[in-house]
Design brief:
With 430 residues, the chain is of the alpha/beta class. The chain folds into 2 domains: 157 residues, Alpha-Beta Complex (Aspartate Aminotransferase, domain 1), CATH 3.90.1150.10; 243 residues, Aspartate Aminotransferase, domain 2, CATH 3.40.640. It is built from 13 helices and 13 strands. The protein has an 8-stranded mixed beta sheet with strand order 2-9-8-7-6-3-4-5, sandwiched between helices. The protein is globular and about 70 Å long.
């Protein structure tokens, strides 16, 4: 019986190798490694902004609610229009929000730097003075989070992800016993790359848990809070800032977001939301590094997005660009990998920008190599884990949004072919 199964594996392997050589003879030269919007999506956004700017005559009408010329200095926290809009979107008072520049990642860097250099209100000891400082990293996760904290000299501690969020039993045990653990990265809604949504219980446990470090901080990267894919379904998470207030940990959380995939990647606006005390602390330090962020760009966004309804309508339009791509990827994977379901699994996100595939242990790097040789660039294996090390050599992050649909379909067919070859090589001892 075992011999017959082995022969089936070999027959399947030979079939997939023939397909693979066909792909190599017609290389696609595509990159699905990063969550970038497509050209069509960016063109659509450009048309929306152009129309609004012409109708409003942006550069002549430069005065908003604050009665200040947005083309001049001032308003470090950002213009009130956008603070109010994001306050409505995030269910927070606008006073709890600072509007930043084009990158939420830059704000995360700045807030880490602030804590490293000066500490925070719960401890005046700068984190930089602590040689054994640590940070919790739910994984798989966002590579740039991990790179940043590694760059700043933190020891990165891997926390397994579940469909409800990080393994909270492990998180609570660690933070309760170790005062050198200073923070945790969280992408709570449509996590990168799994697309998981933190459960109400997970958010509540993060807000109320006991920590040995009085200055422990949650870095809450709410990047995809408007990026829903399922029509007429809006997934929501509990309000972490309000929950922290409820459990007398008001200053525990910094929440970040941006319009990078709502408006223009690299030319949007970002925000940080936190307790009023934290916001005051941040402004008192930021005033030494910047007079104000780009208020012309803020005003441009405020013209386009005047209300929550404007944002919701706009995001449904953007979902129309991306929904067919996610559906197509899942359909191809379902068809191509049906006979391999005992060796792998993948997520079915309802929002965000990624699909996470877990192939047979020990097969992800081989899959990456095969894809690269055939002209397809996928996320480097290990990037979704601290120090770039996936101990199981299993996770593959798929970013479907950038290619056009026909190119994407060819890419995923090639990816599936490479996955099967890698698994079959392992099953048949190469």
């Amino acid at each position: 019986m075992k011999k017959e199964i082995k022969m089936d594996f070999i027959k399947e392997y030979k079939k997939e190798k023939i397909r693979y050589e066909e792909f190599k003879n017609d290389p696609i030269k595509l990159d699905i490694s990063r969550g970038k919007p497509s050209k069509k999506q960016v063109d659509y956004v450009a048309s929306v902004f152009k129309k609004a700017e012409i109708e409003f005559d942006l550069y002549s009408n430069r005065t908003g609610i604050d009665k200040q010329d947005v083309g001049n200095y001032g308003l470090l926290p950002g213009i009130t229009e956008l603070r109010q809009l994001f306050g409505e979107l995030l269910d927070l008072p606008y006073e709890n929000i600072i509007i930043g520049g084009n990158s939420s990642l830059s704000l995360m860097y700045d807030i880490l730097s602030l804590n490293l250099m000066f500490g925070n209100m719960q401890s005046k000891t700068p984190w930089y003075n602590l040689e054994n400082r640590k940070f919790l990293c739910p994984s798989p996760g966002y590579d740039r989070h991990f790179m940043m904290t590694e760059y700043f000299g933190f020891e990165l501690i891997t926390i397994p992800m579940t469909p409800q969020g990080p393994d909270m039993d492990m998180v609570e045990s660690l933070v309760k016993s170790d005062p050198m653990i200073k923070g945790i990265w969280c992408t709570p809604l449509y996590s990168n790359p799994d697309g998981y949504v933190y459960s109400d219980e997970t958010v509540e446990r993060l807000a109320k848990m006991s920590t040995a470090a009085s200055d422990f901080r949650i870095f809450w990267d709410n990047a995809y809070f408007t990026h829903h894919l399922v029509p007429n379904k809006v997934n929501k998470i509990k309000n972490i800032i309000k929950l922290c207030e409820k459990y007398n940990n008001a200053d525990r959380v910094y929440q970040f977001s941006s319009t990078s995939k709502i408006s223009f990647p690299g030319a949007g606006v970002s925000l940080i939301a936190s307790s009023k005390a934290n916001i005051e602390h941040i402004q008192n330090n930021f005033k030494y590094r910047i007079i104000c962020y780009d208020k012309i760009n803020m005003f441009r966004h405020a013209i386009v997005f005047r209300t929550k309804a404007d944002v919701d309508s706009h995001m449904e339009k953007l979902a129309e660009f991306n929904r067919p791509k996610f559906n197509s990827v899942l359909e191809i994977l379902d068809n191509e990998l049906a006979e391999f379901k005992n060796y792998l699994h993948y997520t079915r996100p309802e929002g965000g920008y990624f699909i996470s595939l877990y192939t047979m242990e020990g097969c992800a790097k081989r899959t990456y190599q095969l894809c690269k040789e055939a002209g397809l660039v996928i996320t480097t294996v290990g990037d979704t884990y601290p120090y770039g090390k996936d101990a199981k050599d299993s996770n593959i992050r798929i970013a479907p949004t950038f290619p056009e649909l026909d190119e994407l379909n060819k890419s995923i067919s090639l990816l599936a072919c490479c996955i099967k070859i890698a698994i079959l090589e392992k099953l048949t001892d190469n």
